[in-house]
């Protein structure tokens, strides 16, 4: 007889915004949650404010600073030692956005930090946990039912990294574009700060890192058979009032949510965004690999998710293969 167990889901960045609001729906579905943050003490304190004591008992907190590849390595070893059951689902949610930097911040390994946190940290984490993920239980209890569950990876993408959408063509500071990848090819260390090797543009550094996240999804789903694993990305909508915008000017922080609510109608609450992430990481409806899920850029209640058309910069197999291989070298996976 098959042993039926609770599924284990890992999520990065649960101290605020989308990640914090994904915890409740994940717990409601019946997951045991592994919350990865750079400060567990802070993450626990924040989670306690919205979760009950019995919900808290189903969350384990692990400390990883995604900016530091050594820390990612140590944290993943700790996870592999600590948890008896393999992880069924990984959600790469954490991110930084620092559009006002005049010069790049550097990660402990010397990489431009936005790319280090958003792309390199997650890329390494996924690769170090992949074997464990692929060995996970095929039957778990989800929403009170025994469910056949394929191992799953969900990465938060964004509209501004997708040149096929209007939001992806905004020229300020410039659309996401990895160019000829010479920045990666030449080691991505100072004075290099952009994947393209061109001049540092802090806002574009965020878009480029999210483009790399979305490319990773496409390349991974090609490399791993669709029967074995589901790898997808999503754009939950414009969650215009999260801490992601903490480094933007105060006037922008004040006006941006208003603009998104009443002009573009792209605004999504943190709660709804969290529900969407939990759905994509858990439900059968989203068990299709290589899909970028979206609910559109003008939010309407009751709207269903659809597979968003992606730009050539994301799906081109030469670009995705080269980005993947160069990233592997930079995070020293070779
Ligand atoms: N907000 C939007 O409109 C929007 C739209 C599309 C996609 N997204 C994506 O949604 C995801 C969540 O964004 P959000 O808006 O919820 O932002 P947020 O509120 O700023 O949350 C970001 C999370 O990432 C964590 N984090 C940052 N640096 C880290 C590091 N070095 N190591 C580990 N964790 C780190 C933060 O933890 P600390 O408290 O320690 O900083 C926080 O928990 C991101 O991937 C973003 O690109 C957001």
Describe this structure in words.
With 334 residues, the protein is of the alpha/beta class. It has a single domain (5-175, 206-330), classed as Rossmann fold, CATH 3.40.50.720. It has eleven helices and eleven strands. The chain has helices at residues 17-29, 40-50, 53-56, 69-82, 113-134, 182-185, 202-223, 250-264, 270-282, 312-315, 317-330, and strands at residues 5-6, 8-12, 32-37, 59-63, 89-92, 139-142, 145-148, 152-156, 230-235, 292-294, 306-307. An eight-stranded mixed sheet has the order 4-3-2-5-8-9-10-11, sandwiched between helices. Helix 1 (17-29) links the parallel strand 2 and strand 3. Helix 1 (17-29) crosses helix 9 (270-282), helix 4 packs parallel to helix 5 (113-134) and helix 7 (202-223) packs across helix 11. The N and C termini lie far apart (41 Å). Bound molecules: NADP nicotinamide-adenine-dinucleotide phosphate (NAP). NADP nicotinamide-adenine-dinucleotide phosphate binds next to helix 1. NADP nicotinamide-adenine-dinucleotide phosphate is lined by residues 12-19, 37-38, 65-67, 93-96, 117, 156, 158, 210, 235, 238-240, 242-244.
């Amino acid at each position: 007889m098959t042993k039926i167990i609770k599924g284990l889901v890992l999520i990065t960045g649960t101290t605020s915004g989308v990640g914090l609001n994904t915890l409740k729906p994940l717990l409601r579905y019946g997951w045991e949650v592994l919350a990865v943050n750079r400060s567990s003490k802070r993450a626990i304190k924040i989670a306690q404010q919205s979760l009950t004591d019995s919900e808290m008992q189903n969350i384990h907190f692990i400390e990883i600073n995604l900016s530091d590849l050594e820390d990612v390595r140590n944290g993943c070893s700790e996870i592999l030692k600590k948890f008896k059951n393999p992880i069924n689902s990984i959600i790469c949610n954490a991110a930084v956005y620092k559009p006002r930097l005049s010069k790049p911040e550097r990660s402990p390994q010397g990489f431009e930090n936005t790319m280090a946190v958003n792309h390199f940290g997650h890329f390494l984490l996924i690769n170090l946990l992949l074997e464990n993920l692929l060995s996970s239980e095929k039957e778990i209890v989800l929403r009170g039912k025994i469910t056949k569950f394929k191992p799953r990876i969900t990465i938060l993408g964004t509209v501004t990294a997708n040149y096929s959408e209007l939001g992806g063509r905004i020229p300020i500071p410039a659309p996401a574009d990895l160019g000829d990848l010479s920045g990666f090819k030449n080691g991505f260390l100072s004075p290099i700060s952009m994947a393209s090797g061109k001049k540092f543009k802090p806002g574009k550094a965020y878009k480029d890192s999210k483009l790399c996240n979305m490319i990773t999804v496409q390349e991974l789903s090609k490399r791993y058979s669709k029967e074995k694993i589901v790898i997808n990305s999503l754009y939950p909508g414009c969650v215009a009032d999260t801490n992601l915008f903490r480094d933007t000017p105060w006037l922008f922080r004040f006006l941006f949510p208003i603009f998104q609510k009443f002009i573009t109608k792209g605004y999504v609450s943190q709660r709804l965004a969290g529900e969407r992430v939990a759905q994509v990481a858990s439900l059968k409806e989203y068990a299709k690999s290589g899909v970028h899920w979206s609910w559109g850029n003008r939010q309407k209640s009751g709207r269903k998710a659809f597979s968003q058309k992606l730009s050539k910069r994301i799906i081109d197999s030469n670009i995705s293969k080269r980005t993947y291989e160069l990233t592997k070298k930079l995070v020293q996976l070779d």
